[in-house]
Amino acid sequence: MLTEPKHITYDEFINMDENTEELLEYIDGIVYNQASPSKIHQIVAINIATEFNIFFKNKSCKPFIAPFDIILKNEQTEYPRKVIPDISIICDKSGLNDKNYIGIPTLIVEILSPSNEAHDLVTKMNLYQRFGVKEYWIVNPKIKTTSLYSLNKKGLYEQFGVYKNEEEFESATFNGLKINLKDIFE
């Protein structure tokens, strides 16, 4: 028999988070434990982050790689949500501090692992859409694909494209940011 996850308040979560070494996310009252990434996950994350570092050098937006806490918060939300995306691009640095970022990243990349597929494909995608993350990439190292989603004028994600093998694609948000999958999946 499946049990419903226990909901806790944001204050209870903060207390829990401050007293553990585990990587925890807090989404809509539920705490999610982050698993350690696999070798291929790390390789793909480093490769994407390298491409981002080159592209964003001397630009106002900056890439951040996990583990770096993102506290999603805006005027419409009753309480914040905490996530630890694999990679995020932050353009509005007003919420940036040494410990985390409070605000909405412009682009988030999540790299799928067997333990987090449903979480990244459903829970986080819905959350990022709701908070207005302009662009969301889902990278699947197992089948070597990248799905790119971009917010439309109604604030809903539209699939901008699914790229595979050695295809090159361009960001929907950042003009000139091109990624060739052969450079990502080595």
TrEMBL record:
Single GO MF descriptor: endonuclease activity
User: What InterPro entries does its record include?
Assistant: Nuclease_put_TT1808, Restrct_endonuc-II-like, Uma2
Q: Which residues form the Putative restriction endonuclease domain?
A: 11-181
Q: What are the record keywords, sorted? A: Endonuclease, Hydrolase, Nuclease
Q: Which domain of life is it from?
A: Bacteria
Which Gene3D superfamilies does the entry link to? Answer: tt1808, chain A
Where does the signal peptide begin and end?
none
Q: Name one Pfam family in it.
A: Uma2
Query: What is the official name of this protein in its record?
Result: Uma2 family endonuclease
**Source taxonomy lineage?**
Bacteria, Bacillati, Bacillota, Clostridia, Eubacteriales
